[in-house]
Write a structure and sequence with these properties.
Radius of gyration: 17 Å
Distance between the termini: 32 Å
Order of helices and strands: HHHH
Strand content: under 5%
Number of strands: 0
Length: 100
C-alpha cells in the first residue's frame, strides 16, 4: 500500500501565517507569545508538509517565529507555492510514449 500525502490548501497556509502575525496585534505580548507559538508552528509545519522538506521547513519556521521581527515571513505560504511549483514541474517532465 502506498502512502500518498495530500498537499495542504493555500487557505490553510495563509491562516497559519496569519496566526503567526497575530503576535503583533497586542503590543508587548508579541515576543512572549512567539515563545509559545514557535514550537507549535514548527511541529504543524513538519507534519503538514512531511518528509525532509517538512523537517527543514519546520526548523526554518521555528527560527523565523522565535527571532524578534522575523514574523513577517509567510513561511507556510512560501512552502505551499514551492510544493505546487515542484509538482507542476514534475508533471511537465513526463513525456508520453506511444507503443506501435
Amino acid at each position: 500500500m502506498t502512502n500518498i500525502q495530500k498537499s495542504p490548501s493555500l487557505l490553510f497556509c495563509i491562516v497559519m501565517d496569519a496566526i503567526g502575525y497575530l503576535s503583533f496585534a497586542i503590543p508587548g505580548v508579541g515576543e512572549f507569545s512567539d515563545v509559545i507559538w514557535a514550537p507549535i508552528s514548527a511541529i504543524v509545519f513538519a507534519k503538514t508538509f512531511g518528509g525532509a522538506k517538512g523537517v527543514f521547513g519546520g526548523i526554518f519556521n521555528f527560527i523565523e517565529e522565535i527571532m524578534p521581527g522575523m514574523d513577517i515571513i509567510p513561511s507556510f505560504t512560501i512552502m505551499w507555492f514551492l510544493t505546487q511549483k515542484a509538482g507542476a514541474a514534475k508533471q511537465s517532465e513526463i513525456i508520453p510514449v506511444k507503443a506501435k
